[in-house]
Design a protein that fits this description.
The protein is an alpha+beta fold. It is built from eleven helices and 15 strands.
Length: 409
């Protein structure tokens, strides 16, 4: 399987200047290749453009300072962006042409297959990259012996910090998925409750109001600075750091929640959400964007693959309207948080009812057997003080500890 491991780098000042020079040279090459493609009557094959790089070095001296694989990956980046733009247009999205990259928009360089090596110098791990040198690395996570590093991307974040992302192929067999899964769960995601599953566990959405307030305060201070001044640059890094803190806390929550479902169950059914389309809808788009449902589903999918767990994404239409007990559809506005079936009288929390429908559709789609019927009647009625058997708060202690204690109840 393919994984990405990210490590923080600590380059000295001299190496930082060299890295910035290499990144800017790659940015200029990106703009040059894009200009040539825009001027051409017909876009040539990528490998043909890569074949012109040696000739470019004859008059472009700075290209000789950069490793050849890095230059080839710059050309690949242009073609990948063109492919993405073409796919968006085919899907009906409005799109123009690729734009030139400014220094703030191009921050990374990629070594593919060669030009890098992990070393241990004087008892301290370092990352050696060709034509730059040895960069101290905070190696907080070991790489297994049966793993092969295929690619390294060195990037400077807006905060000024440098990171290295390793593309790793692990030569190991993934666990086989059960033909008759015993531990099954359906998960409905939302905003007030981030997740409500068929086991009666409701995961509260994390409260990042303090982080957002600090970010907004830093942005207001930035707006008062003279653009381009030393104080403006200092405050810009503060704003970038606030963004990074919020992003890290959100991803930490998503990683823990997705790992919990992937490890604790044999089959996980979720909604196949168009997260980007939902964000573009009018009203409440900030909360929908902050929920990061698309990121959560991508994390859950690859972790289920790694753990040998069935991952099923089902059609989300009608999961809240359909009765999980008898299948009757009942229209209800978004503000109505209870499900009450006029046909069979089944009452439950709206999200719990949706989770049971998601699980039912997931079992049908995956086509696997299940030893026990789904006990829909175990869902708590809507008039109970808490509409879930367990409510997991996303505070202290950590989500992992709270969910583990909930499972052991």
């Amino acid at each position: 399987m393919h994984y990405n491991y990210k490590y923080r780098l600590d380059p000295p000042e001299a190496l930082t200047e060299t890295l910035l020079h290499h990144v800017d040279t790659c940015r200029q090459l990106y703009n040059h290749v894009l200009y040539k493609l825009n001027e051409a009557d017909e876009i040539p094959a990528r490998y043909k453009v890569q074949g012109t790089l040696p000739d470019l070095k004859s008059w472009w001296d700075d290209l000789g300072d950069v490793h050849s694989k890095v230059l080839q990956m710059v050309v690949k980046r242009v073609y990948d962006n063109l492919s993405s733009l073409k796919a968006q247009k085919e899907n009906g999205r409005a799109g123009g042409m690729l734009k030139w990259k400014s220094p703030r928009e191009y921050r990374s360089l990629t070594y593919n297959q060669s030009g890098f090596e992990l070393k241990n110098t004087s008892g301290r791990p370092v990352l050696w990259v060709s034509k730059i040198g040895e960069i101290p690395i905070h190696f907080h996570r070991d790489i297994s012996e049966n793993a092969t590093i295929k690619q390294v991307t060195v990037k400077q974040e807006p905060t000024g910090e440098w990171f290295a992302t390793f593309g790793i192929d692990v030569n190991e067999d993934t666990p086989e998925k059960s033909e008759n899964p015993d531990r099954i769960v359906g998960v409905d995601v939302g905003i007030l409750k981030y997740a409500h599953d068929t086991d009666g566990t409701a995961i509260q959405s994390p409260d990042f109001s303090d982080e957002r307030e600090r970010l907004e305060r830093a942005q207001r201070n930035l707006s008062r600075k003279e653009h381009g001044s030393n104080n403006w640059e200092k405050q810009r890094k503060t704003v970038a750091q606030r963004h990074a803190d919020l992003k890290r806390k959100r991803r930490d929550f998503l990683h823990k929640l997705s790992a919990y479902y992937a490890r604790e169950y044999d089959l996980v059914a979720v909604e196949d959400l168009d997260a980007k389309g939902l964000v573009e809808l009018p009203g409440n788009s900030r909360n929908r964007a902050g929920a990061s449902w698309g990121t959560f589903l991508r994390m859950l999918e690859y972790k289920c693959e790694r753990e040998g767990t069935h991952f099923v994404a089902v059609d989300s239409r009608g999961t809240s309207k359909e009765c999980a007990s008898c299948g009757t559809e009942t229209d209800k506005p978004l503000w109505m948080r209870e499900h009450s079936c006029p046909s069979c009288g089944f009452e439950a929390d709206r999200d719990a009812n949706a989770a049971w429908n998601i699980l039912s559709r997931g079992l049908e789609d995956v086509g696997v057997g299940h030893s026990e019927p789904m006990p829909v009647e175990t869902a708590l009625p809507a008039d109970t003080p808490v509409s879930a058997k367990r409510v997991v708060e996303t505070g202290s202690p950590t989500l992992t500890e709270r969910t583990a204690s909930a499972v052991s109840e």
